[in-house]
Write a structure and sequence with these properties.
By secondary structure, this protein is α/β, with parallel strands linked by helices. It is built from 17 helices and 8 strands. The protein folds into 2 domains: 177 residues, Rossmann fold (3-Layer(aba) Sandwich), CATH 3.40.50.1970; 166 residues, Up-down Bundle (Dehydroquinate synthase-like, alpha domain). Bound molecules: zinc ion (ZN) (2 copies).
Length: 405
Amino acid sequence: MNQTLDNIVSLAKQCQCGHHHYDISIEQIVVSHEAFNQLAAYLRYKQYKKVVVVADNRTFTAAGRSLCDKLKNESVLYTVCLIQSDENEDVIADERAIMQVLLETPNDVDAFIAVGAGTVHDITRFSSYKMKVPFISVPTAPSVDGFTSMGAPLIIRGVKKTIQAQAPIAVFADTDVLCQAPKAMIAAGFGDMVAKYTSLADWQFAHWMANEPYCPLVYQLTIQSLNACVDHMEDIAAGNEKGIHVLMDALLQSGIAMLLMGQSYSASGAEHHLSHYWEMEFLRQNKRQVLHGAKVGVSTPIIVEHYQRVFWPLLSELKQCPKSMDETIWERLKIYTDSIQELLESLPSPERIRAMVEKVGGAVAPQQLGIDPLLVERSLKEAHRLRLNRFTMLYCLNECMLMEG
Ligand SMILES: [Zn+2]
Ligand SMILES: [Zn+2]
């Protein structure tokens, strides 16, 4: 990471923002060629003798098998749980996958090791938490910033819910494995970082409008990660070791920043709500899922466009408090009008963001992901309802400025 874990913990201790910062329960984060050796050393140190390796077919081939060889050499007993894919060939974090893990896990296991991308992590995060056993993260692709999170987004009876579970106790990411990850997953990771342009703007806005807790340190850690990715765009696009290292570090650092705050405001704004809305529509239609980072890579420039072309002009023309708007919100909008303008002007243009995502090999138009323009239009009106307690600019626009009466 840009900052070491110890450094972040000590910065958080000295932070003057006035908000409580949560303890980071992650003991070690390693991103290197030597990650699996260090994982073996960590298991020795923890005296873990029996582990369950959770993977899917692809991630087992990519990393699970060589990890298991290592475990054998270390005389660590292990069982492997290969999550079955569904009828669309997708591995889904749903009740079936969780049940499979629980059924295949011996009762006396010391720890779980999640070997995979976001979905395998979420299945393991929840299953291990329910069994009151820690889990260790082995990311196989730099695809998402959720490896270190506490929450597990699960699909239960066809509906997506984020359920509080646990963060990993350690992360061991092997750079050779990460560099072999499919290009689409690397592009998705970059998309999840680009999303921080709008998530950070929405967070700042929510702080002004609704007194949402805000911390300059968490802001700094997140923007620093984003900027590192933009500065190394060429390397990430080339998929070389430097680029993959920077991207993985950025995703982990953004994840740690969320943990410090105990919520995801810094990393997830209206662009994430759009993505979740699309995902739910795909679930309803039983369509193949699209990578989370690919969706937010597309939704971020759409949100910037919407804020600059719809939200801002409407806000700057408002001369009196609309009926649907609370007086206090109105007053604050007036106080912060200049700051909001500045905030929106500080964002890169939608074209610039699309050029970045395209450079790294990601999709830039919703249609490329099978998302039709009508769904995009509907989501811009309704996606904020997925999270009504989040005072994003999209929420303000739809609930306070456009509503009648
Ligand atoms: Zn703080
Ligand atoms: Zn995300």
